[in-house]
Every structure is written in C-alpha cells, then in structure tokens.
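[INFO] parsing input record for Receptor L-domain domain-containing protein
[DEBUG] input buffer:
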Amino acid sequence: MVFTLFLLLFLLLKTNCSTFQDCESECIFEPVKLISTNIGSFPKCAKVCSFLKIDHSSNLTHEQLTEAFKNLETLVGGLEIVNATFTDVKFLNSLTRIEANTSPVRISNNEKMIELGMVNLTTVITYNFAVSGNKEMTVLNLPKLQIVDCQLSPCKPVISMWNNNQNFCMTTEEMKVFLLNNRIEQFYVNSKVCEPAGDNMKTCKMPEVGCEELVGNLEIRQDFDTKTVNSLKIIYGSLLVQNSTLDDLSCLGNLTHVAQFDGLKPVVEIQEGLKSIKMANLERIVTSVWNGAHIQNENKRKLGNDTEIFENFALFEKTPQNAPRSFDGLSC
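[DEBUG] output buffer:
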C-alpha cells in the first residue's frame, strides 16, 4: 500500500516536472489557484507553465485578469475556471494554445457566464475538454478553434458540453472541430446548432442544390427532389426516410457525417422496402451519450433481409458501451 502511494506520487511529480521543463524558470507559476495575493507574480511570458485554477474565492476582477494575461499565448499545464462569477473569459483573449495533456480543460458551473469569447484560441491539447453547467451560456464563441486532441498514447479526448443554457448552440465550424476528428469517440453533448451565416452558400437550413452542410433534419418523403442532396456531406440533425418511392439512397453518395445532439428524434430512421441503404462515403453517425443511434423503420421493426448495408460505414459513435445502438434489429 505504501509502495503504491509512493509510486503514484512519483508519477505525479515526474509529470509535473516534465511539464514545467517546457518553460524557462521565470515563466513557471507554481500556485495552483490564482488569487488576489499572488496575481502580481504571474509571469509576463508568452509561454507559461501552470496548472491554473480560477474560482469564486479568487477575488479577482476581469480587469486584473486581463492585465495579468495580456502577454499569454501558450499555457502548458492545465486550466480550470469553475464556480466563478465572470460573464466570459475574454481576459484570455491573447491565448492561442493550451497544452494540458495530463489535466482537463474545464470551464464549468459559472452561473453568470454567457460565452467563452476566447477569440484567438486555435488549439486545445487535453484528454477532457469540458464546458458544462454554465446556466446562462448560449454560445462558445471560439471562432479560430481548429484542434482539440491529446498527444499521449493511448489517449482519446472526451468532449463534455452539457447542462448549459437550454438555448446553447455551437456553430458548424466549432462542431466540425470535434466531428471530423476520428480520435474523439465520447461526446457528452446536448447542443443546438447555431443559425448558419447568411453568406455561407454551402450551408443551408433546407435541402437545395449545391448545399454541403444541412442544419436541421433531412426528411426524404414522397416526391422528394434528390438533386437537392447530391452534394450533401454533413447533416446536423436526423436522417429520416419515410413514405418515399426511392429504391435506394444513392442520392446521398457524398454524405460523410450525420451528427445529432438534441436527442429529440432518432438519429437515423429508414422505411421498409428499400433495396439498398448503402451510402458509400458515410464515415460516422455521431450522437450524444444520452441518445441512441438506431437505424430502423418508422414502426421500429428491423429492416428487411434483402437490404444492402453500408460498405464503408466506420462506426456508431456513442458511449457508454451499454447504451442503445442498433442496426437491422441487432445491437452493435
């Protein structure tokens, strides 16, 4: 028992030392919690090593934090902002990169926070990126975010964005950061998709010729114009095929992703009678851990035995492992 505790302590110290070797000595901030009595010693470096925590007891103003972080571009260690009273974290606007391989990046339970507003952040390296329990938060506002991943092996980052405001939404660009990274397999997410910008001709709310990303459910019914989905690559919603006269779904040959995080409808629901539901380029069906990924007919019966399934379909994305997933009446 004593040996085990010693080993755990050794590994923790080894990790901290390794992390802090990435910074010059004058750019290391040792205190875990940033408070009014130590903020004056926060390094003025562009790259700082620190396991940084800010909460309700920090007793710091937005202006004090903005001044302290004005030179900060890369944070190595970890970041937690929990139970604070700020409406945003724009005091970290200069930050472009967070490297927190062994720690979470967690912004949670901040009762007044309406957005993050870290407009220059491009990269988050962590095993758990959590923005949850912020009851007033309606948007992320991370317009330059490109990468959320972890560098340790084996490591697959977990995304937790739940229990924020009921109107919380992510933009399609923010969603694609998570959706297109195949290493991210666990989504604890309940989120709407923000209203698409009017000048984005490749994003639409209703199927139309040339549209590549549909914000909303795709409902294929009788007399559906298949030309409107020939270019479609991503559906941010459900795929519903009901009362259609189609023999197959070859019109969706360019579809690569279906992502649905509001949990209001089945992720995929397909009528009986189709000879083939093959979608040759489909890579992922992604849903939150609370919403089952089912492929079924409208009467919740399994599809017919003559149905040809996907050739290159990679996986249903859902955790935990005992959550409902089914194809043709079988679990997967």
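[INFO] The first strand starts at residue 47 and ends at 54.
[INFO] shutting down worker
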